Description:
Blueprint: H1 3-12, E1 28-32, E2 35-36, E3 44-51, E4 54-65, H2 68-71, E5 83-90, E6 105-107, H3 114-124, H4 141-168, H5 174-186, H6 192-200, H7 204-210, H8 214-224, H9 235-251, H10 272-283, H11 288-295, H12 298-305, E7 316-318, E8 321-322, H13 332-350, H14 356-367, H15 374-381, H16 389-403, H17 412-419
Parallel strand pairs: 4-5, 5-6
Antiparallel strand pairs: 1-3, 2-3, 3-4, 7-8
Helix pairs in contact: 4-13, 4-16, 5-6, 5-10, 5-13, 8-9, 8-10, 11-12, 13-14
Amino acid sequence: MKEDFLHYIWKKQLFDKTDLFTINGEKIHIIGVGEHNTNAGPDFLNAKIKIEGLIWVGNVEIHINSSDWHKHKHQNDKAYNNVILHLVYNDDKTIKTEKGEIPQTLKLKNKIDLKLLTKYQQVFDNKANILCSSYLPSVNDEIWEGTLQKLTAERFNNKVLEIEDSLCKTNNDLEWVLFFLLAQSLGLKVNKQAMQMLAQSIPFKLLIKYQANSFQFSALLFGQAGFLEQEFNEGYPTRLKQEYQYLKQKHKLLPLEKFVWKFLRLRPASFPAIRIAQLQVIMSQSQFYSKIKHAIKYEKVKELLKVELDEYWDRHYVFDKLSVVKKKKLGAATLDVIIINAIVPLYFFIGRKDEKYKGYATDLLKEIKAEQNSIVKRYKIAGKKIKSAADSQALIQLYNFYCIPKKCLTCSIGKQLMKDD
């Protein structure tokens, strides 16, 4: 049994409340369960209970065994002095607060419906990553779709918080944030961190100053990425290096170390130099931020991202090394990744003040095919339909933040399973 289960039992009051007594034999009546606290401190705040006719208002702490109080060092923490009720499944030890007082204790053993306890144990005894996988086919479409909708919003609200953190460093310049989001999206999973570092190494004032000049902007990006520190045989990278040396000295720039970039198991089309070149061309478009903000429709957004590189890159994947001639374009799947990870979060962020942008963001996700990854595959195997990227993004949130940490009783599906007979 996990404490989460007892939290759920207390919050929903799913135990026998007839003839309810503390372990000291005092009559207890629960008036209010309090507010579930997910931060540090007691588990429920501002609960209201009546003990022997006297009403108490304070906090409730929950443990499997009363001895867990000592395991968690609560006896040394003043934050637990205002605990008016210690709710336990099994009372195995007398405990005291930091003040030396013994809190009232309510034992739930033999008070929880055996069917409910059995169902909980059946789910948590499951060794699968998705504990409720065998139950998922029985979850009706209304609950499933409602849960996914909430999880999509939750996932992108979390991304909005990340954007807010970025804005703190850039004087609220949304154009720089778009640049940052595009950079990390183009890096995909392998070079996401390196692309973030590259974007963060370029102050907003330099982005604005040089992005309209294709050559200078290229020199700035490749130089900051650490790709212009060597000697070259070809004219184009040699000129970029000369330009970057000038910019580096003028603005006191510090380039990244080249070792931060990864090439192993990457297709040549995803090599960092190609992605940086694509970032440069995308961001060099006139009034690009304004165009993205007003595009809102899937096809219009894609058109703004469908860029072609100049002729040099037709015969290169890296500087100074010729390759077979091939146009370097962003594929359909990569375009969708960029929209999901850059444009949709940006729209959700704008939607804080202009609500309709949240609708635009959700519409974009519904236009994009569901992502194909190991997480989505798990739910497909469990018999659930995944219609679009809105669903697959929701499932990533569900799996990482509920299934893996086994927070089933804070999940709409898990709570429904506990209700069903």
